[in-house]
Design the sequence.
C-alpha cells in the first residue's frame, strides 16, 4: 500500500476540447489504484449531453462515471458537481449536485457562477477528505479569455484549491507545439507557475523524430515534458461530446443500423456497444446526408425533444421511417426517441424550449408530458424479447401514459414496467439508456431486428480492458516519479 499526503489534488487541463483530458484522467486514476491509492475523479464543471445516473440518485457527466470505474468506485454527484446540458444554442439546463435547478442562458449563468463555485468547492472538499488523491479534469481550454472571469472549470479552480496542473495536447491533430506554448503564454504568471509539465497525446511514429521538438519545448518554456502517449489502435472509451464513428472490423453478415444525429442528441454512448459489435454496421446520419437502407432505425435520446422532432420532419425522416416500416424494418426509440414515437409530446412549462405541444410520429399509442421533476434511476429487469436480462438508467422529465404501455418493452425489478412494443412487433420504445450494454438484452434486440446467430459481446469487459491499457501507457510512457511527486506520493514507500 502506498502512502500519500491526505487530500492531494492534481488537475489535468487540455489545450483544446478533445485533447485527451478524460482519457488521461481515466489512465491516471487506474494507475494510482494499481498502487493501492484511494483516488477519486473530479470535474468541477462539465458541459455535455452525455450523462450517467449516480448511486445517490443524481446526474453527472458520463466520463466521470467511467473514471469512477477506473477508481473502483460507484459514480457520485460530488465527482461532477456542475453539469450544463445545452438545450439551445444560447442556453442550457443547469444541474447542481446531480439535480436540475433550471434553464439559463450564458449571461444568466455567468452571474450564477458564484453559487456554482460554492457547490464545486464543497464537493471537492468532501472528496479530498475521503480520498488520498483527487484527480481533476478541466473543461475545454484554460486559455479561453472570454471565460476567465469567475472561472470554476480550469485555472480558476486550480487557484482556488492551490493544486498543480499538467497540460495535455493532441499531436494527431497537428500544431501541438503552438497549442502548448500558446496556451502557456495566455496564462497569468501565477497560473504559469502552477503548470508543472506537458503530456503529448496520440503520437504515431518514431519518437526519435519528435525529440528535437521536445527539447525545444522544454527549453522555450522551462517546463518538463512528462511523456508522450502513443496513438492507441482499437481503443474505445466513451467520448464525452463528439460522436465516435469508428467501427471494428465486421463479419460477412451484418445488421445495418441507422441513427439520426439530432442537434440535441443525448447519451450517444448508448450506441458504443453496437459500434463495437462485429455483426453490426452502425451509421450515424447527419443533417443533409442521405438516409441509407437499414434493418433497424434507432431514434436516440434528446435534450430538446420537440425541436429535434421538428428537425427530423424537415430532414425527411418521417417519410423514410414510414417506408422502412412498410418494407418490414424495425424501429427503436430510446428516451426522447420513445416520446417521439407516440401521439403527442407536451411541454406546458417550457422546460426544453418554448411552451407548447407537438404531434409525434403516432406509431405507439402513448402521450408524454414533460414535468419539472426529472426522473433519475439505475434500473434492471427483463426485456419483453426472449425474457432477456437488462439493466440501464433513466434520465428524463417526460411522464408517459396511454394504452400502448400495456404492451411493455421492459418489466423492471422494482415492479414498474417501461416503454412499449407495437402490436405488430415492429416498433419498440424504452426510457432505458445503456440497454445495449447488457449482453443478453443486446443479443435479443439484434435478433429481433433480424440478425441470426448473434455473437455475444461483453461490453463491460471491453471497457475494463481499455482502462487497463490506459494504465499500462502511464507506466510505460510517462514520468512516474514526477507524477507521484505531484500527487504527494512518497518514493520510499513504493
Sequence:
Amino acid at each position: 500500500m502506498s502512502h500519500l499526503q491526505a487530500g492531494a489534488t492534481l488537475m489535468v487541463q487540455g489545450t483544446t476540447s478533445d485533447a485527451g483530458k478524460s482519457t488521461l484522467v481515466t489512465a491516471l486514476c487506474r494507475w494510482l489504484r494499481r498502487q493501492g491509492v484511494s483516488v477519486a475523479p473530479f470535474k468541477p464543471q462539465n458541459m455535455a449531453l452525455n450523462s450517467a445516473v449516480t448511486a445517490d440518485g443524481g446526474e453527472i457527466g458520463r466520463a466521470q462515471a467511467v473514471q469512477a470505474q477506473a477508481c473502483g468506485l460507484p459514480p457520485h454527484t460530488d465527482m461532477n458537481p456542475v453539469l450544463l446540458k445545452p438545450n439551445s444554442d444560447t442556453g442550457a439546463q443547469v444541474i447542481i449536485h446531480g439535480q436540475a435547478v433550471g434553464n439559463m442562458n450564458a449571461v444568466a449563468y455567468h452571474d450564477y457562477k458564484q453559487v456554482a463555485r460554492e457547490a464545486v468547492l464543497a464537493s471537492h472538499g468532501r472528496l479530498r477528505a475521503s480520498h488520498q488523491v483527487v484527480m481533476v479534469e478541466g473543461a475545454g481550454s484554460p486559455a479561453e479569455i472570454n471565460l476567465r472571469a469567475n472561472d470554476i472549470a480550469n485555472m480558476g479552480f486550480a487557484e482556488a484549491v492551490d493544486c498543480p496542473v499538467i497540460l495535455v495536447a493532441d499531436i494527431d491533430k497537428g500544431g501541438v507545439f503552438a497549442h502548448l506554448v500558446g496556451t502557456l503564454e495566455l496564462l497569468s504568471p501565477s497560473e504559469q507557475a502552477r503548470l508543472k509539465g506537458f503530456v503529448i497525446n496520440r503520437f504515431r511514429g518514431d519518437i526519435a523524430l519528435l525529440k528535437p521538438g521536445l527539447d525545444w519545448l522544454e527549453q522555450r518554456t522551462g517546463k518538463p515534458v512528462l511523456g508522450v502517449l502513443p496513438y492507441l489502435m482499437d481503443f474505445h472509451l466513451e467520448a464525452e461530446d463528439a460522436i465516435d464513428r469508428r467501427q471494428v472490423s465486421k463479419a460477412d453478415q451484418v445488421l445495418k443500423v441507422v441513427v439520426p444525429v439530432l442537434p440535441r442528441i443525448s447519451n450517444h454512448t448508448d450506441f458504443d456497444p453496437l459500434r463495437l459489435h462485429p455483426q453490426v454496421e452502425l451509421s450515424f446520419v447527419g443533417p443533409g446526408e442521405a438516409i441509407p437502407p437499414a434493418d433497424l432505425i434507432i431514434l436516440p435520446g434528446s435534450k430538446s425533444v420537440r425541436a429535434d422532432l421538428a428537425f427530423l420532419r424537415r430532414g425527411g425522416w418521417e417519410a423514410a421511417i414510414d417506408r422502412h416500416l412498410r418494407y418490414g424494418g424495425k424501429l427503436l426509440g430510446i428516451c426522447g426517441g420513445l416520446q417521439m414515437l407516440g401521439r403527442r409530446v407536451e411541454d406546458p412549462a417550457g422546460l426544453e424550449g418554448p411552451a407548447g405541444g407537438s404531434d409525434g410520429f403516432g406509431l405507439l399509442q402513448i402521450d408524454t408530458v414533460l414535468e419539472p421533476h426529472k426522473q433519475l434511476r439505475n434500473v434492471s429487469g427483463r426485456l419483453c424479447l426472449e425474457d432477456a436480462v437488462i439493466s440501464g438508467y433513466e434520465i428524463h422529465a417526460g411522464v408517459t401514459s396511454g394504452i400502448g404501455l400495456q404492451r411493455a418493452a421492459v418489466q423492471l425489478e422494482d415492479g414498474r414496467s417501461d416503454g412499449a412494443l407495437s402490436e405488430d412487433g415492429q416498433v419498440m420504445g424504452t426510457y432505458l439508456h445503456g440497454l445495449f450494454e447488457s449482453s443478453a438484452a443486446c443479443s435479443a434486440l439484434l435478433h429481433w431486428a433480424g440478425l441470426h446467430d448473434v455473437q455475444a459481446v461483453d461490453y463491460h469487459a471491453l471497457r475494463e480492458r481499455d482502462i487497463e491499457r490506459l494504465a499500462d501507457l502511464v507506466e510505460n510512457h510517462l514520468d512516474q516519479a514526477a507524477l507521484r511527486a505531484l500527487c504527494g506520493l512518497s518514493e520510499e514507500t513504493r
Q: What stands out?
A: The chain has two domains: 8-235+464-488, 255-454.
